[in-house]
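Give me structure tokens for this 238-residue protein.
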Amino acid sequence: MADETAAMEPAAGLAIAVAEEVTRDFPAPGGVVRALRGVSLGVRPGELIALRGRSGSGKTTLLNILTGLDNPTSGRVRIAGQDLTQLSETARALLRRQYVGVMFQNAHLFPVLTAQENVEILLRLGHVKPASERSAQSRRALELVGLLPRAEHRGTELSGGEQQRAALARALVTSPRFLVADEPTGNLDSQTGRAIAALLREVAHSEGIAMLIATHDATIAASADRVLQLRDGLLAEA
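Here you go.
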């Protein structure tokens, strides 16, 4: 196996999201469990990285730390040059709103709202106005993922694949520079999963968005620019 630390070093000045020697400990009976052991990683604009590993290997922990939802026990995390470990909770939330998009295994759409209204929620929370601007941004995001013709359909009227497209549009609506997704195809059939994997790659490349996708799906791994494996808290090229 190649040297694990060297394999993860980001190209200087290019990475949007950077982890440097990140560790994360959790309390456990009789001591602590070290979920991450000196993880270093850089994700560049337009790059899609598939993050693989067994359940419980620390993939979600790493995503949470890279987006500022959790703090590392040691090490540094930077988004667009800003050190998250030096920011307050409020400042981290503002940075996430400006630079980061998040997509989950479940679409988490509001069933009574239309696809466009679900996408527009983040803009409402961010107090983006006027309403015409919110509408234009949300419709552009829906168009980007091929869902604009279904903009006025409620969440319950969308198929599983369409719901994930809406969830991706919601993650993209604020024009993030870094997008993370946690098992985005986990609840989809293989054909729909392949379509979502292809869409993620297309959007990453066309929009220049740095993407880190935690997944068990070989289809996403096959379409990724790089595949990394998290095992026993260590990161290596797969």
